[in-house]
Amino acid sequence: MRSQPPRLLAATLLAVLTATSLQSAAAAADYERVLNGTFDSGSADPWWAGAGVTHRVTGGELCAAVTGGTTNPWDALIGQNGVPFEEGQSYTFSFDARATTAQPVTAAAGESVSPYRGIASKQFTVSPEKQRFSFTFTSTLDFPDAGNGQVAFQLGGQPSDNTICVDNVSVIGGVKPPGGVNPNPTKKVQVDLVAYVPGLPKRATLVSTATTPQTWTLKNSAGATVASGQSTPKGLDATSGDSVHLIDFSSFDTAGTGYVLSVGEDSSFPFDISADPVKRLRYDSLAFFYHQRSGTPIEAQYVGEEYARPAGHVNVAPNQGDNNVPCRADLACGYTLDVRGGWYDAGDHGKYVVNGGIATWQLLNAYERASVLGDATAYRDGSLNIPEKSNGVPDLLDEARWEVDFLLKMQAPDGMAHHKIHDANWTALPTRPELDDQPRRLSATSTAATLNLAAVAAQASRLWKGVDATYSATLLAAARKAYTAAKANPAKLADPNDGTGGGAYSDDTVTDEFYWAASELLATTGESTYRTDVTASPHYKAASLNRGGFHWGGTAPLGDITLALVPGLPAADVTAIKQKFATVADEHLTAMAAMGYATPYDNSTAGYVWGSNSTVLNNAQVLALAHDFTGATKYRDGVFEALHYIQGRNPLSTSYVAGYGDQAMVNAHHRFWAHQNDPTLPIAPAGSLSGGPNSGLQDPVAQRLLTGCPQQKCWVDDIGAYSVNEVAINWNSALAWVSGWAAEKSGGTTTPKSDCEVGFTAHRWSDGLSASVKITNTGSSAWSSWKLGFTFPGTQRLTTGWSATWSQTGQEVSAANLSWNGKVDPGKSVYIGLNGSGAGTDPTSFTVNGKTCKTA
User: Fold this and answer.
1) Is 495 a catalytic residue?
2) Is 726 an annotated catalytic residue?
3) N or C terminus of the chain with fewer C-beta within 10 Å?
4) Which among 271, 276, 379 is positioned nearest to 737, based on CA atoms?
5) Nearest to 328 by CA among 249, 408, 422, 468
6) Per-residue pLDDT, 178
7) Residue 3 above 80 pLDDT?
8) What are the pLDDT digits (tens) for 251-284?
9) Considering the domain 25-173 in this protein, what is its CATH number?
10) For residue 783, what is the DSSP state?
11) Catalytic residue from among 167, 637, 726, 744
12) CA 526, CA 567: separation in Å to the nearest integer?
C-alpha cells in the first residue's frame, strides 16, 4: 500500500498572466476543483514538488523547503495536476500561506503538459504571519474532466533557502461537477482482448437494454462471417451498472487471429483463438519479478535496453544503501541488518515480509503443485530469461530464492522477523531505484512477519532438499527458530500508524499465520509437535476457506493447499480439505452464473477492494485446485472465465495485464515504469498486473475521476491512481500461478505425472478377502520411505496386514513402510498384503506419498 508522490515538470510550466474576472465569485458554482487542500489527513497526495523543493505535511499544512539561488519564480514549484477547468467559467483560487522569510509567491492555474499554456496567475507577498489570499479568474482553456489542468505555486527566484507553508487551498467554480468519467473508451461487445483457448468455452458480454435476444456474428481477420447466433438477455448487472446479454460462441473452435464479434453496428476489440498467449503469459508474468529485483543491476540482455537499470540500494550514491540498515529511531533495537536483495514490493522502493511471504509461497507452490499433479518441466532450468538460467536449478526456484534469501536477512537475532524495510519518507514519482537518496529504516519485528518467514523457509527447505541439501538445512533451521520465536511472542502486531515512506501492513489476527507456518513445518518434517498445532487450530481442514479468498493478511488456506498436496495427514482429513475446495468452488460458479461479467469475486461485504484483481486470481487458484482434486471440467472452465475477465471481458473493455490486448494497462503506479510522467522512462512491461477496480477510491486521482462509479468501473489507467493501478509482487504471483496452471491445461487433457504404480489382487469369499499389493517406483528418484493410501468402496474392514504398518479410518486405508522395506529404487517394487472382512469391489484409485498412481 503506497502513497502518491509528486510529479516533476519542466521549468516553463506556466506563464505568468494577469488575473481577470469576467464573472463575480458569487456567480461561480460551489464545485471544488482541488483535492486534499486542507491536508487534514497528514498526506500530501496528490500535490507534487519540482526540482529543488522538498515538501511534506507538517501540523496540518503543506510546507515546502525551497533551495535558494534560482532565477525565475517557476524554477521552484509545488502543485497539483488533473484539475478540471471549463472554458468561459469563473473560478476563485483561495489559500492560506506563510513563509519563514517574507517573499513573493505566485499562485497560478494552467496546463500541465506542453505547450504549458497559462490560464491565470497572481503574485502575493507571503510573510511569517499566516494570511488568507484569494483571486478570481475566468478560464480560457477547457479541461472539463480533469485531463491536463493544473494549479501550482511558484516559489523560486529568491537568493536564499526558505520554507513556505500553504493550507486550505481551494479552487471553486464551474458549472459541471468534476469526476465520474473513466477516460478509456469502452465497447458494447466485451470479449477477452487476448485469446480464447481452443476446446474451451468462449463467452462474451453484450451491453444492451434490449429485452429480446440479439443476433451476433463472428468474423475472421478477412471480414468473413464464420459463426452467428442469438444472445441471451440477462438484465441489469448491478456490479457493473450495465444491462447485459450473454453471448456464447463456444461452437466455433477454429484457431486463428483477428476475430471480431459484432452485434448490429457494435463490434468488439479483435482477439485470437489460440493457446499461445496464455503460454506466453506464464513466463511474462514471472519476468515481472526479475524487473523488481533490488540490489542487482537489471541487465539489457534479459529485459531489453528500455528496462535496463543499475542496481538499486547498494550503497552507491545517492543511495544510502541496504547493507547496514538501522531500526526506526523510536525503536532503538541496538543493531543493524544487511538486507540487500529481495524484490521491491510494488511501485515504491519498500520491501515487505508479509507481501514477500505470500508472493514467494505462491511461486514455490506453483512449482510444487506442478511437480505433484502436473509437469514441472515448464519451470526447468533455462525456461526464464534470468541470470541463473544455466545453473542446473529450475528457474522458478532460482527466482523465488532471490526473495527467500532476503526474508532470511530480515530475521533478527532473537528469531523474530522485521515487518518491513523502506525509505524514511515517500520518494518522488518518478524516482529510479539507484537515484533514491532517502535513508532506509527497519520497522519493528512482528509475529505476522515472523510466521511468514517460518512458513516460506519451511516450504523452501522441502523443495531445495534434493537441489542443495546444505541450503535446505539452513532454511529449516531458520524456520524452526522463527516459529519458536513467534510462539514466544504470539501477539506482537505491526503498528497500523507506521505508514510514512511505506505501507503499514498491519494485521491484528495471526492465528491464520500460525496455522500456515505449522502446516509447512509439518509437511517438511512430519514432526508431531507441528501436527498437534495444525490439528488444534480453528483453521484446520479448510475451516477459513470461503468466497472471500486468501491474501497477505489471510493466509490459512495456504496451509490447506500444502496439506492437500504433501503427505502428512490422515487420508480422511486430506479428503475433507479437498472437498472444502470443491464446495467453495461450487459457490463461486453459482455466483458467476448470475453475473454480467463472470468473475470469482465476492463483493457482498466490502465491494471491490484495493488489489481486487489479485483476489480474482487467488479465487481462480481455488477453482484450479478443485479441478485438480476432482477432475471436474466445470472448475477448469471457471479458471478461464477469471482470466477472460482480467484480460478484457469486463465493463471497461480493458486488459489489466500490460502488453496483452489492444487496450491494456499502460500507466502502472511505479517509480521507474513512469512514462506518463517522464517520456524517457518506460511503460509497464508485458505481464505486469494492475491492482484493478477499487470502489473505495483510496487515492485523490481516483476520487477526482471516478466519483459515483459502479464497483467494477472504479478503475483508471493513470500513474497517480495508486489505489487502482498499482502493481505488486503478491498480485503478479497470483497471475503467475494461474497462468502457469492455465498454460498446462491449454494443450488438451493433462495426465498427472505418476511416479508410482499399484497392483491390487484380491481373493474373495462371502464375507471377506485376502489381497496382495504390489507397489512399484516408476519415477526417477529412490524412495527413502513410502505410504500407500486407498479407499474401500464397500463395507470392507481391515483385519490384519503384513509387510507394512496398516490402519483404517472409515473407508480410508493406509499402509506405511517398515524399517526394512522403506527404500525403493527406481524401477523396483515392494510387496505387501492384507486380510479383511465385509463385501465390496476392489479399490480403483491409489496414492503413494500423496501422489496419484497408475493402476496395474
Assistant:
1) no
2) yes
3) C
4) 379
5) 422
6) 67
7) no
8) 999 999 999 999 999 999 999 999 999 999 999 9
9) 2.60.120.260
10) B
11) 726
12) 9
